[in-house]
Amino acid sequence: MTAGQATQSNSTSTVLGRRLGGELLALRTAAGLTQPQAAQVLSASTAKVAKLERGWVPIRDPDIRALCDLYGVRDPRTVGGLLELARIDRERRKAKGWWTEFPGIGAMQEYVALENAATTVKAWQLAFVPGLLQSPDYVRALNPEDSFVSARVARQQRLMGESPLTLHAVVFEAALRTLTGGRDTMRRQLEHLATMAQRPNVNVRVLPFSAGTQPGMGCAFNILSFAEPGAMDIVYMEIPHNELWREGGQEAGVYGTMFENIERNALTAEGSLAFITSLSKEL
To answer: Are residues 233 and 117 located together in one domain of the fold?
Structure first.
């Protein structure tokens, strides 16, 4: 069991399940319908509808289509997004990915499992290089445990392969000037970051000190998209001794706007690469 999950009898509430259930609840509320009315169209109990809306049980495609029809939802993109989220949630519940071999990563298990299923990640970091872009020596400077380093390297494989994750990362200048692990380690990290920034699926931007204070500088966060970025997004924030999820569409949208504003004030991709390369040569 991970921090992103909870149990009730034989059911499991997952982040994706709650996200999907929240969308269905919002659609039902907007349509002015009740749980018993939704249960009737599914030939199910009201209790089952309650479990679906709380993310306790996986949702079948026919049930989603029936509920969308009842709620008057005809937009193919909306229905398709719900179906895709349901599919990923069902697969996540059954998945036995590489992360299960690293119990030492603890609360991060739920996050990396979701990251593995995502199509796009937008990462905003103030104090560290984003995990997907960290060099092994940099990782070891943060946590010397071999299992932690191995887990981080395994996680980074999601940026490779035939259908790699698309990553948009904005890093505050302070994270690049902090000598994590010493000068040699940091120089190699900056060189690694410059190399990764040139991959077609990786976009790295630097927010310089000169950009001034920005909304969102109080906390680093990642936005995970599982279909087209937007309505189905989930926001993850890691804070000391805890983790925080934003699963609602409106809340996720706030962070999406915040990320866009930060990215808009950052250096261009070309300017960021030149900045990173220049910093590495100073070390």
So the answer is: yes
Would the pLDDT of 247 be above 80?
A: no
Residue 245: inside a domain, yes or no?
yes
Q: Domain residues for 213? A: 103-282
**Sign of the alpha-carbon dihedral angle for 28, 113, 218, 269:** negative
pLDDT band at 249 (very low <50, low <70, confident <90, very high): low
- CATH number for the domain spanning 68: value is 1.10.260.40
List strand residue ranges (DSSP E) for 78-220, in order. Answer: 120-125, 166-172, 202-207
Considering the domain architecture, whether residues 124 and 90 belong to the same structural domain is answered as no
- At residue 59, the pLDDT reads 92
Residue 8: per-residue pLDDT: 45
Which of 74, 94, 114 is the last residue in one of the domains? 94
Q: How far apart are CA 265 and CA 263, in angstroms?
A: 5
| pLDDT of residue 84 exceeding 90 | no
What is the rounded distance in angstroms from the CA atom of residue 161 to the CA atom of residue 146? 24
Looking at the fold, whether 25 and 54 belong to one and the same domain comes out as yes
Of 148 and 106, the structure prediction assigns the larger pLDDT to 148
Kindly provide the residue ranges of all beta strands, DSSP E only, lying in the chain, ordered along the sequence. Answer: 6-8, 11-13, 120-125, 166-172, 202-207, 221-225, 234-239, 242-246
3-state secondary structure of 143: coil
Q: Same structural domain for residues 155 and 40?
A: no
CA dihedral 8→11→13→17, nearest 10 degrees, is: -150
